[in-house]
Q: What sequence folds into this?
């Protein structure tokens, strides 16, 4: 019973199975999760750990 439901994009809040996850380049701790759409559109994100915003 393990369904891959993906993760929530922190830019738009949509649940996506096509996402990229990386550590915040500023604090190296916050997990940045962005779906494919936001990555292609370069939607701004905000680090949940330190609040840094980036493209
Ligand atoms: Zn998104
Ligand atoms: Zn950060």
A:
């Amino acid at each position: 019973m393990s369904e891959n439901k993906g993760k929530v994009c922190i830019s738009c809040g949509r649940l996506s199975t096509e996402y990229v996850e990386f550590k915040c380049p500023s604090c190296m701790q916050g997990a940045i999760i962005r779906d494919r759409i936001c990555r292609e559109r370069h939607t701004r994100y905000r680090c949940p750990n330190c609040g840094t915003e980036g493209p």
